[in-house]
Amino acid sequence: MLAIKVYDRKVTFSVKVIPRSARNVAAGLYGNSLKIKLTAPPADGAANRMCVAFLSDALDVAKSEIDIITGKNARRKTICIFCPSPIAARQTAERIRSLAGVSD
What's residue 1's pLDDT? Predict the structure, then answer.
């Protein structure tokens, strides 16, 4: 089960990043995390930047609204997305579930 937390105008969730993959893709679940395969190497923050860019495109939110709050040097990360309203936060959570291929 994907663990997504919605707090007023923030959405937090966990991702498991697999760097140096053949393509950038959401690859389902890894435990309670969204598994994301990225082509970037894990060095010099490249995978973090690509992770933010991938989520921005996939979830239709600005890169500036996405923050990696834990795990900047690890494969398991906690992502926080800042939304303009509580309704937008709930909609973003639904898009995350859809990206992971799960429904509630």
Answer: 84
DSSP alpha helix (H) spans, the chain: 46-59, 86-100
How many Cα atoms sit within 13 Å of 81 on the Cβ side?
31
- pTM higher than 0.90 for the full model? yes
Residue-level pLDDT at 47: 96
Instruction: Report CA-CA distances (Å) from 103 to 87, 93, 94.
Output: 18, 11, 8
Nearest one of 51, 65, 44 to 16, comparing CA atoms: 51
Kindly tell me if the per-residue pLDDT of 103 is higher than 70.
Answer: no
The conformation of residue 90, written as its DSSP 8-state character, comes to: H
Compute and round to an integer the Cα radius of gyration of the chain.
13
Name beta bridge partners: 5.
12
